[in-house]
C-alpha cells in the first residue's frame, strides 16, 4: 500500500488557480464522492483551504491513482489538466507522511505557526470519515498528524509571538498593563487595522471604549458596532486624562495628539501608564510623547519591526518542529511496515484454523464416545499445538517488518505454507 | 553540628541560584520547580542553623557581620517565599536567589568569632528589634529587585528593542505591584523595629535615643522610605520614578546596614557588639 499526496499550495500556485478549486465549499464532498467511486483509490482525504488544495490517498497502484486524482481536480475546477499540472507537487510514502505532518503543524503555512490550519485539517478528516473514504491507514495517519501538531505546539514556540500588527499591539498592551480588564480605550479615526486592534483589545477584557472621528456620524457608526461611546474630534483632549490605551488611525496630515496635550494631562492621570498605538501614516501621535514618563508610543513601523523579529523567531522554532515531524514520520513508517506483514500472518492463521477444523471433523467420527468435556479438551489441545507452531514464524516476520529482505521472507513463508493456493484443497 | 546546617544552607542556596539562572535562560518550568524546592530546603536548613545558634548564644545571632549577613540573606528568602505565595511570579526567584546567595557567600568566607555575649543582649527585646528590622530589610530587598526588573523591562518597551528579557520578565504593572506591596508590608516592620529598638535602649542603656550613627542613619532610611510611600499614596507616583526611588532607598538602607556598623562607630558597630 502506498500513501500519496498530490496538491498545490500558496508557494506553487497563484491565488487565481487555487480559488478555482477552493471557492465552492461543496467541492470537498464532491471530490470524496469521486474518490470513493475510483477502484484504484483505497482511501482518500481532500483538503481545500484558501492557501492549499490537496488530496491524500492510500492506493495499491500509484501511477493510476495519481492520474485519476489530477483528472478529478480538473473536473472540480472545470479546467484542463495542462493548466495546472505544473503547479502540482506529488509526494509518496515518507515524503507524503512528512508533508501532511508539516501541514498540520503549520510549518508549511504562509504565516508559519498560524493556528487555523489544524482546524481545517480536522474538518477535512471529519468529512472523509462522514463520506467513509478514510480507512485504517488514513485514520491512523491523521490521528498521528493531530498528535504531531500538538507536540509542535507544546514543545516549540512556533505560535508564541504575534505576527500581525493588531496582535502585536495587544501583546504590548499586556506587557504594560498585565490585564486589560477595566482598562479604557480611545479609538481615533477608523480603518480596518485600527478596528481590528480595537476588537482584539475588547476580546482581552477592555471594558469601555470611546470613539472619536472627524465626521461625527462615522464615530456614531463605529461606536455602535463596539457598543462604545462616540465623542467629537475636539473632545479628544479632554478624554486623554481618563483613558489607558489610545488607538489612532486618521488621515490627518498634522499630529492629532501633541506632546503638550499629553504632558499637561499627566498630573491629572496620577502617572497611570498610557499606551499609544499609532497606526496612521502620516503619524497621528507626536513621537516625542514617548519620552514622557510612563507613556509609551508605538507607531506602525515599530509594530512592523516587532513582527519581523517574531517572524524570524518562528522560523527558528520551525527548525525544532521539523525535527519532531521527522521523528514522528519514522514512527509512522514503522507502523506502516508492520501492515505489510499482516495479510501473510492472517492467512497463516486461517490455514492453521482450516487444518484444525478438517482434522477434528475426521477424528471425531471415530471418537464419538467422548464426553463434551473431553471433546473440548481435544479442541484446546489441537489449537495450542498449532499456536505454538506458528508463534516463531510470526514473531520472525514481524521483526523483519521494514527490512529490505522482508519481501523475500514473506514470499518464502507463503510458498513454504502454500498460502496462495486455494484454501479448499487442504489435504 | 550547627555549622553543618550553615554549610548545608549555603550549598542548597547556591544550587537553587544556579537553577534559577538556568530557568531564566532556558524557561523550563520544571527547572523552576526544582530550584524553588531546593531553595525552600535551603531556607529550612538556614532556619535550623539560626535556631540552634540562638539557642547556643542565648541571643539573636546578628552580633557580628558574618551572622548579620547570613540573617539578612535568610530574611530576604523569607520575604521572597512569602510574596511568592501571593504573586506566583517564577522569574522573581532568578533575581532574589542570587542576591541572597551572594550575601551568604560573603558571610561564609568570614571567620567565626566566638566572643562572649554581653548579658544585656540576652533579651527578648533584642530579638524582636532585630527580627522586625530584618524582615523589613528583606521586603525592601524585594522592592529593590522588582525595581531593577521594572527598569529593565521599561527600557525594553521604551526603546522598542524587545530583547530576550522582554519575554522573560513580567508586565510592568505586575512589577510595580510587587514593588508596592513589598514596600507597604516592609515599612511597618522597619517602624516597629525602630520603636522596639528604642524601648530596648531605654531598658538596657537608660535612654531612648542617643544620636548613635546607626540610629541616625536608620532614621534617614526610614524617612526615605516614608517619603516614597507618601509620594506613591498621595501624588500617585508609580512606575519608573517609584522604581528609581526604591533603588535609592535601598542603597541608603545598605549603607545603614553595612557602612554605619563598620565605619561610623557607635554602640551599634560590630566592634562594640562583639567585644565582651
Helix and strand composition category of chain B: mainly alpha
The span between the termini of chain A is 33 Å
Overall 3D shape of chain A: elongated
CATH superfamily (homologous) name of the largest domain in chain A: Glutamyl-tRNA reductase, N-terminal domain
Q: Radius of gyration of chain B, rounded? A: 19 Å
Mean pLDDT of chain A: 88
Distance between the termini of chain B: 25 Å
Tell me, briefly, the overall form of chain B. Answer: globular
Q: What percentage of amino acids of chain A are in beta strands? A: 5-15%
Q: Greatest interface and its residue counts?
A: A-B, 21 and 19 residues
Number of discrete helical segments of chain B: 10
The total strand number of chain B stands at 0
- Spans of chain B of at least 5 consecutive residues whose pLDDT stays below 50 are none
Named CATH architecture of the largest domain in chain A: 2-Layer Sandwich
User: How much helical structure, as a percent, in the residues of chain A?
Assistant: 55-70%
Can you describe this structure?
The complex is a heterodimer of chains A (about 425) and B (about 280). By secondary structure, chain A is of the alpha/beta class. Chain A has three domains: about 1-155, Glutamyl-tRNA reductase, N-terminal domain (Beta Polymerase, domain 2, 2-Layer Sandwich); about 165-305, 3-Layer(aba) Sandwich (Rossmann fold); about 340-415, no CATH class. Helices cover about 55% and strands about 15% of the residues of chain A. Chain A has helices spanning about 15-20, 25-35, 60-75, 80-85, 95-105, 115-130, 135-155, 165-175, 190-205, 215-225, 235-240, 260-270, 300-365, 370-400, 405-415, and strands spanning about 1-10, 40-50, 50-60, 90, 185-190, 210-215, 230, 245-250, 275-280, 295-300. The radius of gyration of chain A is 33 Å and the shape is elongated. The relative contact order of chain A is 0.08. With about 280 residues, chain B is mainly alpha-helical. Chain B has one domain. Chain B contains ten helices and no strands. The mean pLDDT of chain B is about 90. Classes of the chains: A alpha/beta (about 425), B mainly alpha (about 280).
